[in-house]
Amino acid sequence: MEGVKRMEKIKIAIVGIGNCASSLLQGIAYYANMTKQESSGIMHWDIGGYKPSDIKVAAAFDIDERKVDKDVSKAIFEPPNCTKIFHKNVPLANVMVTMGKIADGVADHMKTYSADKSFIPSKKKEAEKSDIVKILKDSKAEILINYLPVGSEEATRFYVECCLEAGVALINAIPVFIASNPKWAKRFKQKNLPIVGDDIKSQLGATITHRTLAALFENRRIKLERTYQLNVGGNTDFLNMLERKRLDSKKISKVGAVQAILDEPLTAENIQIGPSDYIAWQKDNKICFIRMEGRLFGDVPMNLELRLSVEDSPNSAGVIIDAVRCCKLALDRGQGGPLYSTSAYLMKTPPKQFTEDIARRRIDDFIGGKRVD
Q1: In angstroms, rounded to a whole number, what is the distance separating the alpha carbons of residues 123 and 344?
Q2: Cα gap 55→116, rounded to integer Å
Q3: Among 79, 125, 276, 279, which residue has the least CB neighbours within 10 Å?
Q4: Please, is 304 exposed, middle or buried when counting C-beta atoms within 10 Å of its C-beta (0-12, 13-18, 19+)?
Q5: Bridge pairing between strands 194-196 and 223-233
Q6: What is the pLDDT of residue 117?
Q7: Are strands 194-196 and 337-338 parallel, antiparallel or unpaired?
Q8: Which residues is 194 bridged to in the sheet?
Q9: Which of the 8 DSSP states describes residue 111?
Q10: How far apart are CA 138 and CA 345, in angstroms?
Q11: What tens digit of pLDDT does each residue of 250-264 get?
């Protein structure tokens, strides 16, 4: 594509060196020496000439004593991280994890919860905006990935402001509404910075499965009358979400993703979607229970029940690898503002919702240069 600029590596910054960051960095190393034919699990092997191994961490931020001041390649294996280790040999990044901003990034109960030492606060002074901006600029980071815990509204806005000041694109992987908020979207457009969000849609997780089943009901003209989706897991994300007041945006995101598929949205009392409970011994394994009740020919009732078990963090890492490369493609093309097609395919609450088949066609068109959102 004419006017496209390329760099050897895509330099990213990561906020929150938890399980998702661990799976992401393990994955980058895991696929480094593979060919396309060997690369199961990658949705797009090549995006604008960029392979998964072309992603490099330039800056990293956390607030846990066990991670701050460690090389990020080592910090990803520190507790309380508990995701599956599928690639131990992650090369040294020569990037130390910097103390970040706390704000509302830690649920109150996690500050005193000690059963698995879920949080040990760093003794370092927490960062100010000027500190983060300087690190982003000095590191030449191009894209920041927000992996903060669910409910981190204030902390997310802090890092978004840092991105805008430092001139860094954003991938918002959590359900705090930034890309889908017209005011924030406008600011990224004015700065000519791409933004992808909000709330990562796992490769084959609860939301994508529920949406696909809802579309099947619609396509086969089965009237969906009520449905629920309950999730349990044992990672710190589920522990964090025991504080129910942090779940408002998460529930809006997950419910909205399914409702967007339906011609006639369900009333609030007939749809229940959201995290259910924390079971420590499950670690990073997430178990999802879906039930859907409807009526088919002759108004005869039917129901469907499904149990899905997945390792939560690897399930999102491949999606982030695509999001990073699409974001970089937009940077190369000089395109700022929300990436609508990318967000619709990869996120639960994008600025514009599309069905999965339409979103897939649109992101492929975007990658091929046929569509500029």
Answers
A1: 40
A2: 32
A3: 125
A4: middle
A5: unpaired
A6: 64
A7: parallel
A8: 337
A9: G
A10: 32
A11: 889 999 999 999 999
pLDDT tens-place string over residues 45-82? 999 999 999 999 999 999 999 999 999 999 999 999 99
Q: Can you tell me the distance from the alpha carbon of 261 to that of 240, in angstroms, rounded to the nearest whole number?
A: 29
The rounded distance, in Å, linking the Cα atoms of 203 and 345 is 10
285: its two tokens: 């394994």
Contact 258, 271 (CB under 8 A): yes
* β-sheet bridge partners, residue 12: 57, 143
- Token representation of residue 182: 């017209």
Please state, rounded to an integer, the average pLDDT across all residues of the chain. 94
* C-alpha 161 chain-centroid distance: 19
- 293 bridge partner residues: 226, 303
Residue 228's region, left for phi above 0, alpha for psi from -120 to 50, else beta, is beta
Mean pLDDT of 239-246: 87
Distance of alpha carbon 353 from alpha carbon 233, whole angstroms: 28
Place of tokens 């806005």: 157
pLDDT higher than 90, residue 15? yes
Which of 275-278's residues contact partners 24+ apart within 8 Å by CB, and which partners? 275/231, 275/232, 275/233, 275/238, 275/241, 275/247, 275/250, 276/230, 276/231, 276/232, 277/232, 277/238, 277/242, 278/232, 278/233, 278/234, 278/238, 278/239, 278/241, 278/242
- CB within 8 A of 10, min separation 6: which ones? 50, 54, 55, 56, 142, 143, 324, 325, 328
Sequence-distant (6+) residues with CB within 8 A of 213 are: 290, 292, 304, 306
